[in-house]
Amino acid sequence: MPEYKLGTLRGRYVVQWREGGTRRRYRLFGTHEKESRKEALARLEQFKRESSLKADPTVAELWEAYSKEKTGRRVVDAMKSEWKVMETSFGHIKADKVSTDDCRKHIKQRREAGIKDGTIWTELGHLRTVLNWAKKHDIIRHAPPIERPPKPAPKDRFLTQAECQKLIDAAQTHHIKLAIILLLSTASRITALLELTWDRVDFEQGHINLKVDAEGPRKGRATVPMNAGARAALQHAKTGALSDYVIEWNGQPIKCIKTGFKKACKLAELEGVTPHTLRHTAAVHLAGAGIEMTKISQYLGHSNTSVTEKVYARYAPDHLRQEADILDFTSVRKVTG
Question: Are residues 167 and 297 in the same domain?
Fold first, then answer.
């Protein structure tokens, strides 16, 4: 790592270092010296990885560099698994030379292998993310557009109140039951729930903070109130907690609840249900109860209300009711003489 100097410029911290006789300077976001120094070291590590890439890097080299920078994030685990397939289609190609034909060929091969469009859409989305990251950091001059299959329509499956209770009752292990209760009561994404630690469960204030930290992933993460059912389940779990993680097994955090969740669904005789179905279920029930879209959006951690309205407005009891009444031309009208 090159020697660096931390300074200020126009009221902001900056880090400076030399690269081949040329001075480089990077503006930091930190407002205090300690956090700015930490940010500076992270930026220099990033620069070191980027500079190790040769000119005209291949997709394989960028994929590896991106994965190293994002080490620790769950998306990296998914990308490692995806790379076994993506390497065959794109690994050897120069990053800025990826073409629409390359994408279409990948789509065709994956479909022939029986892979659904939703999976292909995600794979190519990660490729686009890597290329855009490289462009943003000036590793490549141009991030070519990545063609993907149409995004599948979201599954409309949600559980009734009776089905929710059947699923909770069918869970055979404490951590699966706790996960189901919290997924329903917090409308959390499964990743956020599995990363939830006890220091972010505030029994005194009655809040559950699903955000890891200011720098961590924020998609679909909010701070939500703790209802009575969630409080009871959490208090019971806390008495036997063996780790910092709320959802644990034998004192170890859990990466996936797929097996236990599938078993509970089978025992409850519920088909087409995934952990994400419970988040959708929570939102549908909120909308059906007439809760304002702005509040549902906050509960789900959506970046803006339009996302919430697009999916859940139709479940609201009065959705387009006034408009429908205006268009009722069969109504008997009062005749005046």
Answer: yes
Q: Are residues 34 and 87 in the same domain?
A: no
Per-residue pLDDT of 105-146, as tens digits, reads 999 999 999 999 999 999 999 999 999 998 988 888 899 999
Same domain, 40 and 93: no
260 lies in the same domain as 132: no
Number of structural domains, the chain? 3
Same domain, yes or no: 212 and 276: yes
What integer pLDDT is reported at residue 213 of this predicted model? 58
Residues 90 and 181 in one domain: no
What average pLDDT is seen over the chain? 88
Residue 215 has pLDDT above 70, yes or no: no
pLDDT in tens, 242-300: 999 999 999 999 989 999 999 999 999 999 999 999 999 999 999 999 999 999 999 99
- Looking at the fold, whether 205 and 81 belong to one and the same domain comes out as no
Q: What is the 3-state secondary structure (H, E, C) of the chain?
A: CCCEEEEEECCEEEEEEEECCEEEEEECCCCCHHHHHHHHHHHHHHHHHHHCCCCCCEHHHHHHHHHHHCCCCHHHHHHHHHHHHHHHHHCCCEHHHCCHHHHHHHHHHHHHCCCCHHHHHHHHHHHHHHHHHHHHCCCCCCCCCCCCCCCCCCCCCCCCHHHHHHHHHHCCCHHHHHHHHHHHHHCCCHHHHHCCEHHHEECCCCEEECCCCCCCCCCCCCEEECCHHHHHHHHHHHHCCCCCECCEECCEECCCCHHHHHHHHHHCCCCCCCHHHHHHHHHHHHHHCCCCHHHHHHHHCCCCHHHHHHHHHHHCCCCCHHHHHHCCCCCCCCCCC
Tell me, yes or no, whether 38 and 98 share the same domain. Answer: no
**Can you tell me the mean pLDDT for 192-217?**
85
- 76 located within any domain: yes
pLDDT digits (tens, 9 = 90+) for 37-60: 888 888 777 676 666 566 789 999
The whole domain housing 78 covers 59-136
Domain with residue 255: its CATH number is 1.10.443.10
